[in-house]
Amino acid sequence: MLNLLFTIVILHYDISNMALQISINTGNIELDNKISEWLKWNKDAAAEHEIQELILNNDDKVLSNLFLKRLEFGTAGLRGCMGPGYNQMNDLVIVQTGQGLSMYLADNIVDVTEKGIIIGYDGRHCSKRFAELTATIFVSKNIKVYLFSKVVPTPFIPYGVLKYNCAAGIMITASHNPKNDNGYKVYWENGAQIISPHDKEIQKYILKNLEPMESSWEVTKIYHSSLCIDPLDDVMQFYFNDLEETVLYPEVNKNTILKFTYTPMHGVGYQYMTAAFNVANFKPFIVVEEQKLPDPEFPTVKFPNPEEGKSALDLSIQVANKNSSSIILANDPDADRLACATKIKNKFLYFCDSDEWYIFSGNELGALLGWWMIHKYQVQYADVNFSNVYMLASTVSSKILASMAKQEGFNFEETLTGFKWMGNRTVELEKMGKTVLFAYEEAIGFMCGSKVRDKDGISAGMHLAELAAYLETMGLTLLDLLNEIYIQYGYHISKSSYWICHESSIIKKIFERLRTYSGKLNTYPTDILDGKYTIIGVRDLTTGYDNTKPNNKAVLPISKSSQMITFTFENGLVITLRTSGTEPKIKYYSELCTPPDEPENVEVLRNILDEMVSAVVTEFLQPEINGLLSRIS
Ligand SMILES: *[C@@H]1O[C@H](CO)[C@@H](O)[C@H](O)[C@H]1NC(C)=O
Ligand SMILES: *[C@@H]1O[C@H](CO)[C@@H](O)[C@H](O)[C@H]1NC(C)=O
Ligand SMILES: *[C@@H]1O[C@H](CO)[C@@H](O)[C@H](O)[C@H]1NC(C)=O
């Protein structure tokens, strides 16, 4: 019996392999049509097999999900699981996206053929293929293409857009997502990531250009076309020359006794961080051998995300211990973000528990790098006038830069979450003749200077290494400086984490409940722990409600498609609850600050913060009732 079944399946397979004659009959005509259309346009044999198998198994639920939905082009471009269908990342979806995007650029940017487009890719499965397909489409439309000949850090794309004055840039990467994901990130001609309404317009153009042109598939042509140029050598030279110009104390770097350990987390960073250390005059770092080269399987980490804290840095810590190295620098796989850990020398500092290694939060690194960028600026420009100088941070990041700005006399602005907004604001400020010295977000993204209008884990790594070497000459560590910063500018204690929720309806329910807390719309919670802590301000950037502003109207732009509410408590605690654009998470960010002239017992503050955050989670998110999963690590 089993044998017979087996034969039948094999038979089906043979027929289908020959000429797509497999019968598609799911009972849903729309679905049938979408599947046959996809099979007709697709040229990837493995993907075709996968679909045929689903059809043979009558897996209608999966099929509907793959074919009746479509990956939506957003401000982050595309991000999704790799696999067949319109709702995943694959050759056909990449071709359709490239066709739509190229038409959109042609209609919206003058001289697009001359200006051209710059394309890069990371070390994931299919990334190079997706980049080549994308290049093919642009070349077939006579648009100049700068296609990197090997994996590069994501920041090379925004850097290249400005250097070559391109019409746009595309990076094929899913950053630190799980290994089966990939993504397609787009930069506009101003070197910043696209913002609305470009995303919606591009989506319309994609939908108008779905049928692949034959020329879109002719990948080998790009390697014979004079329109397709490899910018690697050029960009290496320009980028690292620019970086070298920012190096403040090359002699200090050269002679430092500090040993640095570095991991690119199985991603692209190794060669590039090596070059950065080189131009800064450092001796080579110790590399985590197992994670040195790009490996799309990310075999040594559960998640290739240094933000996940210790588990992602386990191996680095082992290597550092063996080599008596006291500082670890880690990039995420596309090297746009930076994590850092340091061996604890002074256990009396309050924020160090008994662990041997301390992993800095994004907010702490933001404070350190912000301080260092000010120091560099002051040394490099003796008669410094800070009135034209700006630093930016996203609204869910620590306000430590705001406190520094107040004392030092530079300007601080907050933006919505995501570097697309900080890139956007950087462009606007520079147009007004201002200098943007530094921008950061707590998700370990740092922009040092503005030659890259996005986060850059390579330059941030070099700057942080320099800062550590500089402090060492005075017998100080990064942790000591952090302590000094808090003493001078006030304590800023923060706590951020997230809950996982795969059901968008549950997420919606949670936030709707907060908006109608006592029945009517715009009645938000007024306290926690039965009145122990009072809420004095509510800002809802999904609906535009802000009871701290005239007419209850929020000032920052609102986004109906994502959830974001900020509560300000009477004792100064600020906590934001928001959904993530690229992951199934509800994130929270909280901070409790003290003015510099009111030193308090930090232990006490830490306890209050913990108590309040856990009450907000229990009362507002209700993890048990809503079946939320706690974070990994
Ligand atoms: C680091 O330690 C490992 C293991 O002990 C050793 O093989 C390697 O040579 C060391 N690297 C450096 C740069 O000292
Ligand atoms: C700094 O520059 C601003 C604007 O150019 C000017 O108004 C201000 O007086 C200057 N401050 C100092 C201390 O020179
Ligand atoms: C920045 O974003 C705002 C709000 O969407 C928009 O009006 C403005 O044109 C953008 N600026 C740039 C330089 O893209």
The hetero molecules present are:
2-acetamido-2-deoxy-beta-D-glucopyranose
- Structure summary, number of beta strands: 23
Proportion in helices: 40-55%
The count of helical stretches stands at 21
Can you tell me the CATH superfamily of the largest domain? Alpha-D-Glucose-1,6-Bisphosphate, subunit A, domain 3
- Radius of gyration computed on alpha carbons: 26 Å
Distance between the termini: 48 Å
Number of domains: 4
CATH topology of the largest domain: Alpha-D-Glucose-1,6-Bisphosphate, Chain A, domain 3
Keywords: Carbohydrate metabolism, Cytoplasm, Glucose metabolism, Isomerase, Magnesium, Metal-binding, Phosphoprotein, Signal
Organism: Frieseomelitta varia
Domain Alpha-D-phosphohexomutase alpha/beta/alpha: 71-209, 239-343, 362-486
Cofactor: Mg(2+)
